[in-house]
Amino acid sequence: MDPQKPFPTLRLPFLAIEEVFKAMHPFEMQVVYINFSLISNRTKQVTKMMTFHPEYSVALDISKNLQVAIRGTDKIVSNIYEMTSKKVADGVTKEVVGRIELTVFKYSKDPVEEWKQMCVHVLEIFKKHSIENLRVCMDGFVSHNVSIVDFLTTNEISLNECSLFHWDRKINVDEHAAYLLNNLNVTNELNSYLHIKNANFDGRIPKGLKKLHILHSQWVGYERLLKIDSVQVDLIRDRISYNDWNLFFKKWMAMETNLNLESWNFGFESMEDFRELVLYDIPYEVVDEGVKRTLQTSYGSPREINGGVDIRRIDGKTATFCVILTDLGDNSFLFIH
Fold it and tell me: Could you give the angle at the alpha carbon of 116 between the alpha carbons of 115 and 120, nearest 5°?
């Protein structure tokens, strides 16, 4: 019996090829869509001509390895291309049990350059101009940090969400972190886990964010507080003085700063200390513990609050301060309503 011949897909009319892709399971479609587009310039052009656009997003990961991920609806389906300098790993695949996720390892003598080319290719065929999530370990590929930022900037790639990590504190990443923040366009969420050493760190905090989370926020002083323009803010381990907090809340009450703010997580563990040290000359109201209110938290879900301390802005908005037990211990929260 003669061996089965490969099906001549490219001999089909274009509409028929498109219908073949539409009939696939989302996981199959991700894999075949990318692999098909990589065969030749012709298959790439055929792929780009397709009119249906599955709800896929693109994510980039730069840590110990470099990854380009294509994620399906609700991030349930993921197809990840990971660049490697190990030739024996080329073509190896890895599946994650419990999730529809496949990682394909791609060998290159220059993994960073290969990663850039794959980024451009994926964004082009999926007709994307933004990255859903960029995760960068700033000490992972230190010698390439600047070129990676330049690559994203040159290709006018905006970032919906950006998370910055730093594992080896001995490596100073201040300069590269500032270069990234000052050049990339982050539109929705910024998470920083960097150990910034310079108190005069000049990295820019993006405007108009829905969420800003800075774990080691010692470098965020009073002047930066006034410039923050985020809906939800988490500043953990800050060094802001009681007097500066006092001035900040006065400016908020006068509508001179943080007009978009809805919730703020900061480092007081006692409402009594907060009232005495920060609100000492600010009008406030202590709400009875028996009064329960449901307020939106910075973690995205409503939470029932007992009591609290209220201050009011000149437009009638109320800020409620309370202490909530979190994974990091007792933290003070501010909710605008």
Answer: 115
pLDDT in tens, 289-312: 887 877 766 555 677 778 788 899
Record the pTM.
0.83
211 closest CA partner among 280, 89, 276, 296: 296
Burial 93-132 (b: 16+ CB within 10 A, else e): eeeeeeeebbbbbbbbeebbebbbebbebbbebbebeebb
Residue 135 CA to residue 192 CA, distance in Å, equals: 10
Six token digits for residue 105? 């390892």
Residues 6+ apart with CB under 8 A from 127: 48, 53
**Bridge partner residues of 52 (DSSP):** none
SS3 177: helix
Residue whose pair of structure tokens reads 């660049």 in the numeric block: 83
Phi/psi for 229 (5° steps) reads: -140, 60
Instruction: State the Cα–Cα distance between residues 336 and 286, nearest whole angstrom.
Output: 16
**Which residue carries 């490219």 as its tokens?**
10
Higher pLDDT, 178 or 274: 178
Beta bridge partners of 331: 324
How many CB atoms are located within 10 Å of the residue 227 CB?
12
